[in-house]
């Protein structure tokens, strides 16, 4: 496994991130992933994949903190000595609210984690992967959302706006580093069965909204992970700057 490619997944202890970790290990990647506070969930994922013969480790990091991001990448350097892929999965959503009721603190935290944190992680990845800097090239996949196209009125316009920023960042960075051997793409999930709805104070959101989906069901985390893993793979070698919608038709 020492010659295998190395992937870093932010927010890899649960949901889509954990499915990306599992799938990447199955495909032969060595994987590092971050978590914010749930060490037990992170260690459970590490135990699961190592029991199957894979190699992975978890590191605590708040993606809203540049210092934590730097420590995270240093941990990857120390453990694996290279980086070939980054999945910017870590993100937050606030409680359902209208813009007129949103505080500056909420907005600043939303943008700091979802936008600034993702850009800083991409910065560190580019520094390591760029062929211009002696790297091996690589791939970055950002997790956006169909909310970027819908706006999420009356729920979380701030979250939708943060994902709109990720879309623009994806396109710009893809064009900036294409000649350096780095591909940059984004996946835009729709209504997916993960814990994010409950964390935003809407545990019934799937039941309320699935009827609006043309396929009449919510998506699964592994369905999103499959798209992420394809974009990381050599099968997507001519794909960069793409925004891939996976929302059951919505």
Q: What is the CATH topology descriptor?
A: Rossmann fold
Unreliable residue runs? none
Instruction: Name the CATH superfamily classification.
Output: NAD(P)-binding Rossmann-like Domain
Beginning-to-end CA distance, first to last residue? 40 Å
Q: Please bin the fraction of helical residues.
A: 40-55%
Tell me the CATH architecture: 3-Layer(aba) Sandwich
Radius of gyration: 17 Å
Shape by Cα distribution: globular
Major sheet characteristics: 7 strands, parallel
Strand order of the largest sheet: 3-2-1-4-5-6-7
Run of helices and strands: EHEHEHEHEHHEHHHE
CATH class: Alpha Beta
Keywords: Oxidoreductase
Family: Belongs to the short-chain dehydrogenases/reductases (SDR) family.
Organism: Aquamicrobium soli
Pfam families: adh_short_C2
